[in-house]
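Figure 2 data, in text form.
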Amino acid sequence: MAHLFFDLDRTLWHHEGNHRIFFEELHADLGWNSYGTSAQFAQCYLAINDRLWDHIQNHNLGVEYVRARRFALLFSEMGVDKGSPKSLRERTKDCESRLKKRLPDLGQGYDGAADALEELRQGGHQLHLITNGVSEPQERKVAALGLSQFFTVSMTSDRAGAYKPSPEIFTAALREAGAHPQESWMIGDSLLRDVLGGQGVGMRTAWFHAEDAIDPDAQAIPDLEFRHWRTFADLLNRAIGQ
């Protein structure tokens, strides 16, 4: 039996896919056709959001830093920032509110993930989450995916007071799960935050590199690499048995 700690965004919850759905709805509702397509808005937003999240994770800042800036930057880059400063503030506040209410309840995931988790649970493994993010929206994402029943411990960066790859978030999760690093795996899409972070506290690691994944964010050698969830349980059990 092993303790398996999973990342959430871009590992179980399809970050890009759910944002595309959100921006299709927002684009149609707000009539942004003259500024670009919903796909262009989503692509621009995702690049801005990733930059801001990298900044707060590197400097251990709160998520309000991101929330206060991402839509204003999006409007500027997409040419939607016309009007008074007051109207811009109101527009950014409205969009942030819409995102907060809608995005975490979108449930596009990756094919085979639920089946893999069920197989691993049936095999006696303990399943947990370690995710950078705020607990309430992250819990809603897990519920939207229909995966809430699988996880014993859900450690978020706001609970731990640290972001991956800092060792504090991993040790907090291990402590709450009653797990030793030597019997634990970290599974995620980020070589920097999941693989190097997990290795930094003595965990074994599995790198999920989906066919539509973003470029690797570091150089690292995980114990296991996989592209499809339907292959993962078998690969992991073989690796554990070695």
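Caption note: The chain has two domains: 3-14+109-241, 15-105.
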